[in-house]
Structure formats: structure tokens, C-alpha cells
Write a structure and sequence with these properties.
The structure is a homodimer of 317-residue chains. Chain A is α/β, with parallel strands linked by helices and 317 residues long. Chain A folds into two domains: 157 residues, Quinone Oxidoreductase, Chain A, domain 1, CATH 3.90.180; 132 residues, NAD(P)-binding Rossmann-like Domain (Rossmann fold), CATH 3.40.50. The first copy, chain A, contains nine helices and 17 strands. In chain A, helix 9 links the parallel strand 16 and strand 17.
């Protein structure tokens, strides 16, 4: 079969012939119909990820068919029994195990779920990794509730769009930040109330009411200002920190307002099931940026690296 | 009646005659039999506290009698209905309302509870503020459980001793840090396994197994090292930060290990009731450093300022 593999660390992924997966007890072979890109895939091809193994098929997100059943894959493998945190065996699909950028995949039955029926296969393919990450950080970790004021930083990211959509569906008042007014407008079209362009100096001084939940993936020097934007009892959830370490956090504000700073990554099997149920109940459909054919995946990678996308980049198999 | 009041901001508290409290509907007048010092009392006399009001009777901790009933006072007033955080009306007893360093106090009936029966009045007087703070941060906020490895920084503090005692009672494996080997030994006598003297350079490199719960009140530059001592799923609770802002926190460790950093202050009415039940169930008795007569309170203040105490400083009325 054809697949997109890591050929040499630091080189672009290679579209090539590989062996078909073999039948195994407790596993099913899925004919993949669509997949989607995540930043993780880009980082792996650039050698910016631990444990890179040459020859591995890339891709964490995928949907497909088994004997006419439409299925979606949970890309969080071996989470374990503890809802609080993943086990030390935890893996993300697509390294070290072969991923979804292929014609077929063999995967343990416990990670196979029915595809949501209210959306098409392209949209379903966009859901797994980013939807799971968004669900856990917003709902399992930060316990966002109807009526909460929610701030989502970096409105363009794959996860943050799901956070916006999920928070809107919950009945939260959602605000965003972005470096781009256009992305703020897009977020508003998803149901956000308004946004702040963080390229403006001291944008946080223009925020006129504080937040109950803040979801961040930037971190760095700006994180200290997010704390000042917190209502009493607020929760700050984060699942990344592209701008690095947190500095100058004011503990007096944190303890007096009883703020919680909650690290989060991916999600448990229960989170994945709950996320699928939530998405179906609220008829949420992922926002797609562009779709490409799997064999043109290099164009999809270029699109992701440009940072211009709004929504998920999907590959049709 | 006699009471210890703030006479002039920045001056030592004054032992003087004041008016008896007057009867009010929904309030009871308690004949106070013992009280205890908190750092808050010292900071107020030094003018290092917001909203200082001259003429106010100091003191947050107190026990006493009403018609032969032995009672203990919850010093956290007007918490409100939200378990997550105190309301904006929240006050600590002893500023702006008249406190417990007096012969009598008038207090709303909702803050009056039965004194624990397994300990004397001096020990009971030592319990309220520090016990409440310890209970909330360790149990309500950090959800410490039997078998958890718990690190308590600054073993000498009034709150941290309760944290040690409560964690030992829960069945946790408790470790401490202190600037004093003697205080570490005292913590071990309370049931801690062992401790680390933080005056030793890079003491945290000698820690051979990580922690599920860390309770801190120091903050500052050292806080970054506590994060590295966290097990996956760990909770760091804090209720103060004498060394100031947090610097250089590594977000990758925080989100990958799904660590929670949880600010906490005092506790709700439910926390107070739960704390009393917990202390009674486990027959926990506060550690007393020294007792003084109320009219010699200036000696008690000196003792607290010396930083040499281990356990609560109690005043007998």
C-alpha cells in the first residue's frame, strides 16, 4: 500500500510503498478514507520531537471503514486507568506506532469508535486529536460551565477552534486573542463575542471584564497578564506553551482569588468518548481550512507551516 | 472589659479597657477562654495589612463558653455560597470586625461550633485559622489521598504543621523542608518520614522520589524546582508566598505531567465543619509552642516574630 513515512530525520516525509499491515488478534485493519494534519506531524518531520523513528507512517487523525462500518480512531494510546494523568506507556498515534497517513491501518479495537453521523468523513477526520485535547482542557480540567466568561488565546490554532466551539456550545461567553483581526472575525463567526489583537501593546488593559476560564497555548512572558484577567475562582488551562517559560507570576493574586493553573495534554479514553457524545449532542462540526489528496500531503504540510490556516487541514485518501 | 487593640498603626497592640459587646439578634456573646496568634496579627500591628482600622480588637482564633457550652469560632466570615472561592464580602475575624484577644466577643451564630471534645481549650484555640487553611489547601483543593507522597515546605509554620498532621492522618507519606534540622526532627515526631534542609545548595537534587502533592507557602525563585519534583498528576497547593513571584516555570513539565497549581486561602463554612469532623475522627491535637496570659500578649508577639516557634502560640484568658 501507499503511505507517508518519515524517511530521514529532518527531511520531508516521503510518499512511498510500504507493506500492508498484518491481521492480529484484538486488532482491526481499517481502510482509511480521510486524515488530518496536526502540528505534531510537522514537528516530527523537522526532527523537533522526541523518539523519532525512521520508517514510521505519520498521522494521528483518521477515519475509515471496516466492513462498511464508518469508524473514527482515538489517537491517544495506552492512557491507562488514571483519569488524572496518562500512564508512562502513553503514546500518540503516528509515532512510534504507524499512523493514519496511509491506505490502511491496523489498530487495537479499543481505539475504534463509530464515526459521528451529523457530519461528513472530512469533518470527522479533523476531530480526533484536537477535539480530544480541547475537550479535556476546557471541560475535564477547567470544568467550564454555562455562563462562564471564557478567553481563548491564539484563535487560529487547531485546538483553540474546538475550544471556542465547545465553549459556545456549553453556553459560555467566549472571547479570543489573535495576532490577526481576520482570525478574530472568524472566531466571532463561530460564536465568540469579540476578541483582542495581541499585537497591540498592552492589549490586556483593554479587557473590561474578567474571565472564569482561560485556555492558553502560548505561555511565555504574556502568561503573567492572563492571571490578572482572572475572576475569583478562575481556572487557567493550557496544553502547550510555544513562547516558553512562565515568568513573574503573582502568587498573591493566585491564592487570594483561588485560581487554578491546570496543565493538560491529549485526553483519556473516557474524554474521547465524552467528546464524541458532546459533539454529536451539540451537532458541532469541525472547521476545515483546506483539503488535499493524501498523495499531495507535502502541500498540506506547507499550508500548516505558513500559519495562515484557520481550521483543520484534511487529507482525502 | 479588657482587650488587645490596634491603638496606632505601626505601634504595638495595646492592652486596654473597651466597651462590652452589645446583645444583637442572631449573635451570641462568648466569654472567651483562650485564643491563639497568627502571623496576620503580627502583620496588622506592623501596618503590613490592607484596611487597618484603629481601635479594632485583634485576634482570629478563639474558644470560649456560652451558658456552659464550650464553643469554637470559625474565623472566616461571609464566605458565601460558592465553594470554589470566597465572596467579595469575605473577611477574616479580627479586622475589620473585633476579634478574639478580649474577654468577650459578639459573633454571628453561624460561626459558632461545638469545641472538639478530645482536646483541651488551649489546643482547641490553636485550631481555627491555621487548621482551616491547612484543610482546604491539602484536602479540598489538592485532594490528598492515602498513599500519596506529600511534600510540605517550611515545616515550622502554623499552617504547615496542620498540613503535616492532616496528611499523616490521611495515610500519606509525608516529607518536609525546613531551614532548621531541629524543625525537621519535630516534623518527623509528628509522623513525617524525613526532611530536607533548604539551606543546603540544590537540596532538591537529593530528593530520590517525586511527590503527588506539594504544599508551599514560600513561592519565589525556589518554586520552579518544586515543579520538577512533581509526579504525573501532581497537585501543588499554596496559601502564601513569602519569597514573592514565581519565575522560570517550565510549562512542558506542567502540561505533560498534567500538574495542577492551586491557589488557596482560608476556607469555606463547609471546609470548617469538615475540618472539625476530620480532627475529631483522627483525634488530631494541635502542637502548641508556648502559652502566655492574654495580658502578656506582647511576649507572645515577640515569640512569633523571633521565628523560633514550632507550633501555635496560645493566649490564656
Amino acid at each position: 500500500m501507499k503511505a507517508l513515512i518519515i524517511d530521514k530525520v529532518g527531511h520531508p516525509a516521503k510518499w512511498t510503498d510500504v507493506d500492508m499491515p498484518v491481521e492480529k488478534v484484538g486488532y482491526s485493519i481499517i481502510r482509511l478514507t480521510a486524515s488530518a494534519l496536526n502540528h505534531r506531524d510537522v514537528w516530527i518531520t523537522k526532527g523537533m520531537y522526541p523518539g523519532i523513528k525512521e520508517g514510521v507512517i505519520l498521522g494521528s487523525d483518521g477515519v475509515g471503514e471496516i466492513d462498511g462500518r464508518s469508524v473514527i480512531i482515538n489517537p491517544g494510546l495506552y492512557w491507562g486507568d488514571n483519569e488524572r494523568v496518562q500512564s508512562d506507556k502513553f503514546e500518540v498515534l503516528g509515532l512510534p506506532q504507524n499512523g493514519t497517513f496511509a491506505e490502511y491501518i491496523s489498530i487495537s479495537d479499543e481505539y475504534i469508535y463509530d464515526q459521528p453521523t451529523h457530519m461528513g468523513m472530512e469533518e470527522s477526520a479533523a476531530l480526533p486529536l484536537a477535539g480530544l485535547t480541547a475537550y479535556r482542557v476546557l471541560i475535564s480540567r477547567c470544568d467550564a460551565r454555562s455562563g462562564d466568561r471564557v478567553l481563548v488565546t491564539g484563535a487560529g490554532g487547531g485546538v483553540s477552534q474546538f475550544v471556542i466551539q465547545f465553549a459556545v456550545a456549553l453556553g459560555c461567553e467566549v472571547y479570543v486573542t489573535s495576532s490577526s483581526d481576520e482570525k478574530i472575525d472568524r472566531a466571532v463567526s463561530l460564536g465568540a463575542k469579540s476578541g483582542y489583537n495581541y499585537r497591540e501593546d498592552e492589549w490586556y488593559k483593554n479587557v473590561d471584564a474578567k474571565f472564569d476560564v482561560i485556555i492558553d497555548s502560548a505561555g511565555g512572558d504574556g502568561f503573567q497578564h492572563l492571571i490578572k484577567l482572572c475572576n475569583p475562582g478562575a481556572r487557567i488551562g493550557f496544553y502547550g506553551a510555544t513562547l516558553g517559560k512562565y515568568q513573574n507570576l503573582n502568587p498573591q493574586i493566585l491564592f487570594w482569588r483561588q485560581i487554578s493553573i491546570l496543565g493538560s495534554t491529549m485526553g483519556s479514553d473516557r474524554d474521547f468518548q465524552d467528546m464524541l457524545t458532546f459533539v454529536s449532542t451539540h451537532k458541532i462540526k469541525p472547521i476545515l481550512d483546506r483539503t488535499y489528496r493524501l498523495e499531495e500531503a507535502h502541500l498540506a504540510f506547507q499550508r500548516m507551516e505558513s500559519g495562515d490556516q484557520f481550521g483543520k487541514i484534511v487529507l482525502i485518501h
